[in-house]
Amino acid sequence: MFLAEQLVGIKTRKQLVELAKEIGVDVKKPLKRAKYEEELLLLQTELALLTEYIAKKKLRVAVLFEGRDAAGKGGSIKRFVEHLNPNASGVVALSKPTEIEKGQWYFQRYIEVLPNPGQIKFFDRSWYNRAVVEPVMGFCNDKQYEIFMRQVTNFEHMLYEDGITVIKFWFDITREEQQKRFDARRGNPLKEWKFSPVDLKGQELWDHFTDYKEAMFLETHTSFSPWVIVDTNNKEEARLESLRYVLSRFKYPGKGKTKVSLKFDPNVVFKYYRKNEKFDL
């Protein structure tokens, strides 16, 4: 701990680090956190500039966040929208379909929440529920799954032709990391609400999820709507790099004015066809 008199005259981070070394205080963790918060704010500023451009040009952007339970989708979305104009952005997190919706064309309720002109929307799970979660958990039958897999690329091609930009993220974590996050949720009364009966099956059905996930990538990764993998167990890194990727997809007035790096790490964020390739930086 620092004493008040020791902090007198300390004006820069460098001076603080030097003082910490002198008195034997480990500041690596708080400094790392401070750097993350600083970088996050700058990237959020860039995203606000992008959102202004989207609103002005009447663009339509849908960013899909998919991944296993506890992969960090919700936390990342929270950081994306934290400082955005709510009139030009929004979060889509559809609940269990009603009886009426169950009788509709599967994509119908998603069409109703697609971004309007001038909007960017962030989907906390999407129509791809039917590609992985539903068949694994028995929430759809084989015929429904097969119909979805036949139709989804045509559906996304129609969105592409109509001018809607769709970015499809898959947040990837290891089995061990998922278990660690589940344990943290169960031991924290502030996070316990996130834990559901479906989560209990996450570890038990891990390999089953993997099979359907790989089938989804194989069948639905296209040139007009590719899958983008965010491959890291570090939540902060996942948030920063996914933000960078979205920003990299657009040209907008004032881009780069914050001086923050807008180049995403290709070893963390990469398209599906590069899944097994790593790059030396």
Automatic annotation (TrEMBL):
<comment type="function">
    <text>Uses inorganic polyphosphate (polyP) as a donor to convert GDP to GTP or ADP to ATP.</text>
</comment>
<dbReference type="InterPro" id="IPR022486">
    <property type="entry name" value="PPK2_PA0141"/>
</dbReference>
<comment type="similarity">
    <text>Belongs to the polyphosphate kinase 2 (PPK2) family. Class I subfamily.</text>
</comment>
<keyword id="KW-0418">Kinase</keyword>
<dbReference type="Pfam" id="PF03976">
    <property type="entry name" value="PPK2"/>
</dbReference>
<keyword id="KW-0808">Transferase</keyword>
<dbReference type="InterPro" id="IPR027417">
    <property type="entry name" value="P-loop_NTPase"/>
</dbReference>
<dbReference type="InterPro" id="IPR016898">
    <property type="entry name" value="Polyphosphate_phosphotransfera"/>
</dbReference>
<comment type="subunit">
    <text>Homotetramer.</text>
</comment>
<dbReference type="GO" id="GO:0008976">
    <property type="term" value="F:polyphosphate kinase activity"/>
</dbReference>
<feature type="domain" description="Polyphosphate kinase-2-related">
    <location>
        <begin position="31"/>
        <end position="254"/>
    </location>
</feature>
<dbReference type="InterPro" id="IPR022488">
    <property type="entry name" value="PPK2-related"/>
</dbReference>
<protein>
    <recommendedName>
        <fullName>ADP/GDP-polyphosphate phosphotransferase</fullName>
        <ecNumber>2.7.4.-</ecNumber>
    </recommendedName>
</protein>
